[in-house]
Amino acid sequence: MYYPEELIEEIRMKNDIVSVISGYVRMQKKGSSYFGLCPFHNEKSPSFSVSPTKQMYYCFGCGAGGNVITFVMEYENATFQEAVKMLADRAGVNLPEMEYTEETRQRESKRAKMLEINKEAAKYYYCMLRSPKGKKGYQYLSGRHLSEETMKKFGLGYADGAGSDLTAYLRSKGYSDELINESGLIGFDEKRGMHDKFWNRVMFPIQDSNHRVIGFGGRVMGDAKPKYLNSPETMIFDKSRNLYGLNFARTSRKGNIILCEGYMDVIAMHQAGFTQAVASLGTAFTMGQAGLLKRYTDEVLLAYDSDGAGVNAALRAIGILRQSGIRGKVIDMKPYKDPDEFMKNMGSDAFQERVDQAQNSFFFELSVLERNYSMDDPESKTAFHREIAKKLCSFEEEVERENYIESVAQKYHIGFDNLRRLVASYAARTGLVQPVERPKSTVARKSTPEENMKKSQRLLLTWITEEPDVYPKIKAYITAKDFTEPLYQQVADKLFADLEQGRYNPAAIISAFEEEQEQRAVAEIFNTKLNELATDKEREKAFHDILCAVKQNSFDYYSERTGSDMGALNQVISGKKALEELRKTHISL
């Protein structure tokens, strides 16, 4: 460790998990929990659950789960210590000097060295651009109307011809081949051995929000493919949770952030004074990136390419922004393709006008949809109005939906009452405009005897955390040793010990496990889906069946080991008596 266990628990308790995760994910309350779209994988139906009672999150789709510290670690790509510090700062808790384990010290050292390697590589590329070897790259950037000041601000550089010059440079700085390889800066093949990954490319250092270089993008000089090449993902670089230019845009104080598609768009806009511009990193816009933006703004303006691909990308981004609770608008680039071209031809004043006139994202969607219909044909026009009604059903909040119905009716001359009836009719027929339903798990498991046994143990632990008052009624029959899976037994041991002392703190149990995979597994144990049962009698029978299944499995498990394990023999003797009593005992819920 690290920090004292009591201090970690204080920090965790002062950071309500619903409050923290609401800063990243848009959630809706359903029963005693909150649900939203998982920030750790792409999905259309909400499968991400946050329990204020347990102070845990769990995704029924991808299996991500843990407590508030786990969430910050996973979302921010942070170490345990970094996550604790972030949450301590949020809660106003002062941290003492930290003690490191050897394993933690090694992991921290490796992360620090990878950041150093990227910093050295950025310096190398930067100097190369300004050397005779970088003439081609410098002419390219100057030809794109970039000033030396702008090139310096973004740390632009150049990787020269094929070879291993950067590799040799990093070796000369004392970095091992293993670390250089893990940084994603080199490639390997039988013909050339280790060689530089980037060559004959203008280089764009990618920085995190704290201005640390975490990766690179390279634009090829000439017609080679791919045109743009990015660093692979590493322990310090996750493309889906970073944005190019955010290190500058987050302090722009412009009241919004402009989302572009490419590095050059961002750079050209910053040079023109639009310092709130950012771009995704060679991938489609993600929920993780939307969550990152939500920390800095409530409004995002899309400045995507005006061609078909750009329009489709904008439509997808609009949906993600809306799901994340961010207002979206779309900037019209026509007659130019992208912000870079627009700025060169029209200038910053004209672009500011386009920013001021940015179209509401919903009306942009309707304008794109309208292209598929003929407004001169009554039948086609009616079909378009039906599609409008369908889209209006996506607004779950009644006030917001009513406001949009009024605006849309006015814009398309439909008539407010007519459109309202059409929306109500469509919603009634399709079941839309309904609250979010709790999703079923998509984590498939084979129904084997072993898995059925594990599931019974998970169900019992989940039931006890859902209803801790049941523990005193069953502790005479069940002990932690009855959970034959090692991890489940550890969890039961900690849970039962807490309950014996009158504590109920399942989220704290997660903190006892250091590995992320273990934390996920513990979160799953506490979030196994319990079937909805209509009557108390059905619930009591189901609970009794689960108890007996766990106890029977325990008896069978230790019976097989009596020949070589004296402890197993004692467990069998006591277990048989408890099992017989349990079978004839009624446990009231």
Write the layout of secondary structure elements.
Elements: H1 5-13, H2 17-22, E1 27-30, E2 33-36, E3 48-51, E4 56-59, E5 65-66, H3 68-76, H4 80-91, H5 102-129, H6 135-143, H7 148-153, E6 157-159, H8 165-172, H9 177-182, E7 186-189, E8 193-196, E9 201-207, E10 213-220, E11 228-230, H10 246-249, E12 257-260, H11 263-271, E13 277-279, H12 287-294, E14 299-302, H13 308-323, E15 327-330, H14 339-356, E16 359-360, H15 361-370, H16 378-392, H17 398-412, H18 416-430, H19 449-466, H20 471-474, H21 486-500, H22 506-511, H23 516-525, H24 536-559, H25 566-583
Parallel strand pairs: 12-13, 12-14, 14-15
Antiparallel strand pairs: 1-2, 2-3, 3-4, 4-5, 6-9, 7-8, 9-10, 10-11, 15-16
Helix pairs in contact: 3-4, 11-14, 16-18, 17-18, 19-24, 24-25
Kindly describe this structure.
With 589 residues, this protein is of the alpha+beta class. It has 5 domains: 5-91, DNA Primase, Chain A, CATH 3.90.580.10; 102-237, DNA primase, catalytic core, N-terminal domain (DNA primase DNAg catalytic core, N-terminal domain, Alpha-Beta Complex), CATH 3.90.980.10; 241-366, Dna Topoisomerase Vi A Subunit, Chain: A, domain 2 (3-Layer(aba) Sandwich); 372-430, no CATH class; 449-583, DNAb Helicase, Chain A, CATH 1.10.860. Helices cover 51% and strands 11% of the residues. The strands form 4 sheets. Strands 1-2-3-4-5 form a 5-stranded antiparallel sheet. Strand 10 and strand 11 (228-230) form a beta hairpin. It is globular and about 85 Å long. 38% of the residues are buried. Residues 433-444 have low confidence and may be disordered.
